[in-house]
Amino acid sequence: MATTNIRHHNFPINSSYQISNHRTTIRAFQEVAHDTQKSSKKTTRLAESISNMLHLRIEKPAPMSLNNITSSLVHVEEKHNTPTLSPKEDISDKWRQIQGSSGWGDLLDPLHPCLRREILKYGEFAQATYDAFDFDSFSEYCGSCRFSRNNLFNKLGLDNHGYDVSKYIYAMSHVDVPQWLKKSHIMDSWSKDSNWMGYVAVSDDKESRRIGRRDIVVAWRGTVAPTEWYEDLQRKLEPIGEGEAKVEHGFLGIYKSKNESTRYNKSSASEQVIKAVKKLVNLYKERGEEVSVTITGHSLGGALAVLNAYETASLVPDVPITVVSFGAPRVGNIAFRDELHKKGVKTLRIVVKQDFVPRMPGIVLNESLQKFDDITGTLEWVYTHVGAELKLDVRASPYLKRGFNVLGYHSLETYLHLVDGFVSTKSSFRTMARRDVALVNKACDMLVEELRIPHFWYQMANKGLVCNNHGRWVKPKRDPEDVPSPTREGQHNVFHQIESNYQRA
């Protein structure tokens, strides 16, 4: 079956996914904010209470002035004939600073252009975990990746980043299964227990020369809808390691769960990724190369990235480890944060001010209580964030709607748009931002109406149906190499390809 290349990292939204998002998110929040005239006073007060609890402000959408509308449209029209990526710069002499060796203290405000470019690169790797995920509950492969490792970046238009995918990661859960892990059981031809949760990739020779080292990337997928955090979070801390460090029970369950009777999770997500990273690190260190590990993810994926970094620092010594997360929740307690710091892990959290997920768990009981340490002592049960923070504001972009939009605030494409336009807290939105503005509305409704970009615009053609030779509309069969296969996943063809390339060289 011929498959059309997907550019701009498009997010496949099927009908059941859209309906789920609208029911959970719009019914709970957006209708309250945008339909206050029709809503009852009781409902309006509920929305305001939620907003106050999260320290958010519900704003009525402000109409753009004629000058602003004209200016925005002109900028967008001009960008239609320009590349969507900024030119790549050689960062081989400053890669350690960009990876956080000094904590990013002097690189965030104003945001260093080279750091911005790298953040966007890792953010697009995280976005790929959504774009390639099969959300279609009518698909016999629902819950898997739609493409093989060899095809993934090419199909999503990410081959220009200069990385090769070497391993897919699968996860399951022994805790109460959250809604986003459940999928259709109409057909169970590939797996009824596991979900595709991300991948491991490694920079090729050209990209390695540009960035000054061989970079191993681990990208983790997040939840489907942000409102599901109310159901997904167990709000229970569980010990990790040998000290007083504790992490959220549900996150750890997804990261560590396995079952011998399953096809894809005979080993846990933790074991899969550590084995793959160890093998790559050893391979390139034996070649005398400098190696780094960069772990990225959005939402739940950001939480899994932090757990992954903690474990990698313990089991893969003497390698710089950096986490670049987007809209990630708190993961553990103060002792966990301190242990992560001692292990040398550098963490950069990108946060949108209006997004409520980074405020969870621990909306009230969080790191702010540390100022009472003299009275209370160290509080083992208090959640805390880790690392440095780059805070963005929806109101900074002239292209984004005001109002109250939970789904839009949390969307990774909104995050990447704001990163691309951020210069400093004292500067206006960057006029030279290259990323396609239309991507923001790919899976939400955040762009001002004047731009005329449809809401939730990306759909698989005909909802995935194709017309066969007899004129009947049917579900297509995947190309054989794109069909999930535990055997294929175990072959690690990329390692053999890497070794062959060195031998030929």
TrEMBL record:
Record Pfam families: Lipase_3
GO molecular function, one term: galactolipase activity
Keywords: Chloroplast, Hydrolase, Lipid degradation, Lipid metabolism, Plastid, Transit peptide
Chief localization: plastid
Biological processes annotated in GO: lipid catabolic process
Entry GO CC: chloroplast
Keyword flag Lyase: no
Domain of life where this protein originates: Eukaryota
Subcellular location: Plastid, Chloroplast
Similarity comment text for this entry: Belongs to the AB hydrolase superfamily. Lipase family.
Name by which UniProt lists this protein: Fungal lipase-like domain containing protein
Organism: Heracleum sosnowskyi
